Prior knowledge:
The first copy, chain A, is an alpha/beta fold. Chain A has a single domain (4-341), classed as TIM Barrel, CATH 3.20.20. Chain A has 17 helices and 9 strands. In chain A, the strands form 2 sheets. A 7-stranded parallel beta sheet of chain A has the order 1-4-5-6-7-8-9, with helices on both faces. The longest helix of chain A is centred in the middle third of the chain and has 25 residues, at 169-193. The two termini of chain A are 16 Å apart. The model of chain A has no long low-confidence stretch (mean pLDDT 97). Chain A binds chain B through residues 157-159, 162-163, 166-167, 206-212, 244, 246-248, 264-267, 270, 286-289, 291-293, 296, 300, 303, 319, 323, 325, and chain B through 157-159, 162-163, 166-167, 206-212, 244, 246-248, 264-267, 270, 286-289, 291-293, 296, 300, 303, 319, 323, 325.
Amino acid sequence: xxxxxxxxxxxxxxxxxxxxxxxxxxxxxxxxxxxxxxxxxxxxxxxxxxxxxxxxxxxxxxxxxxxxxxxxxxxxxxxxxxxxxxxxxxxxxxxxxxxxxxxxxxxxxxxxxxxxxxxxxxxxxxxxxxxxxxxxxxxxxxxxxxxxxxxxxxxxxxxxxxxxxxxxxxxxxxxxxxxxxxxxxxxxxxxxxxxxxxxxxxxxxxxxxxxxxxxxxxxxxxxxxxxxxxxxxxxxxxxxxxxxxxxxxxxxxxxxxxxxxxxxxxxxxxxxxxxxxxxxxxxxxxxxxxxxxxxxxxxxxxxxxxxxxxxxxxxxxxxxxxxxxxxxxxxxxxxxxxxxxxxx
Amino acid sequence: xxxxxxxxxxxxxxxxxxxxxxxxxxxxxxxxxxxxxxxxxxxxxxxxxxxxxxxxxxxxxxxxxxxxxxxxxxxxxxxxxxxxxxxxxxxxxxxxxxxxxxxxxxxxxxxxxxxxxxxxxxxxxxxxxxxxxxxxxxxxxxxxxxxxxxxxxxxxxxxxxxxxxxxxxxxxxxxxxxxxxxxxxxxxxxxxxxxxxxxxxxxxxxxxxxxxxxxxxxxxxxxxxxxxxxxxxxxxxxxxxxxxxxxxxxxxxxxxxxxxxxxxxxxxxxxxxxxxxxxxxxxxxxxxxxxxxxxxxxxxxxxxxxxxxxxxxxxxxxxxxxxxxxxxxxxxxxxxxxxxxxxx
Lengths: 344, 344
């Protein structure tokens, strides 16, 4: 068992810098596309444990990554809560019954994750049988799930979400409470099923100004972290990835997550200065930098590794998910560069 | 003539804090929609000086704003350079002949702005006849115009743009040179026609990490600023609005623009710390905050004004354009709050 990633998350000394890649099981791999075609559609792939486990495995051996991440989608929580979820090739995810009123909210429930998301737990159990690297479970963060719950899909301005925050804060708070309870129970179930680390993905939190982050998201994420810490102690590290969070990092630390995931927009040296030495940090190469020639990828990796040195722990990752058009050689180049330059 | 805005841009003492609002002439006003309907479509509105001047005027008297901004669109430059531009209600702008190869680039020319964008100059001249507040001219920044030129429209990952930057930097540099020359000539023509301040809009620059900003955008913006300063001296202030730039501000200063426009994601106190006292700053209320009740808008305005106090000059604005669904009362509330709280 390669436990370098676990050690880095806990801030313990490691022999080299571990790396995994957001969306490492994904459309940039023809092997993934073959399984996806076999499943028929994206949601069926998420809900078929054998296939989900299969795609989770694919990039691990191919590239020598230091952690696996459960193949799933953040929106399965919204679906289990009672929202009608569909994925369209062009439009992306669509929720047919968005939350706009108290009545809409009353129809959503906190799901019994072990039961209603049993396919996720089964995937985790399958994976733990033969994975040689740690397994990361994950969930969307409450704010990010709220944007989908309210907007009914992707959004440009998050108009409906912010309108609810600003004009009906009581309804927003009640929705966030329900989402927070759901996320906490879901992550706890994943840990009980075998997830060794969990990541909370906050893809859209970067649209909040710092005061709104403090009022409308921080308390909920902090509650999830505290709840999981109470139940599982220090043995399961928690990663909080706040996308587009350069202006939020001082507040992000208050979630008390063990690992702060950062996006590519911020220079690592700047992030280290803001986050300080009590946390491990995960990141942060621009996913599009994988289109660079290998020697240039190597230069950027060296720069990030050097700047991350003062940290308590560093997990190398991209600053967001790898994009479908990414050349496989770029993925190989970043993994090799991280390992070679950090002394593996 | 109300010159409070000009003074604030120059860092001179003002009696109160001036305010204007990005997209202040826009779809949130029924009066605008009436003129737009009269024009038929958006581009025709931009190209009909009488109508463009009419919508530019609308919000000034209605709200008592301290500056007017030419009604136009950043993509008229791409069109004048030889790109086929269309606006679709749902999809937004589309350029039918994007730049992907050297041949595509060779077909684009640096337009003679006075001639090929004469409708803009005419609008400016019309406006200067009777405006009682300063008139802002504007252009898109080279990188932002390049994303449209290369992607052919809006984009999620800016895949084609970054691919060109990373895989064909010589072609990217030549495109940027052409765009930079076009923008500089266009802004110079606007100033000669009567624009008293110019703003460079960098809507998409926030997708660049700091090192890419330094390599792929900063030199071009700096060249435009230096060129305009050489031609017009200090009398025409230049505003550089870099959207989503919390992690770029220390580099943004190197453009030497007089006024740094900031988006809403960063706390004003943090921006002041990074930008320092040699620049004026413009911003930065979240456009969606105009959906708040008036007393809450007032609280946020007070907070920004207080934090902006140490600055050499402060121009109040939103942190991005006002959105079409915005209640007119919200716009009125922010203008009144800025004026009252800053001592008008």
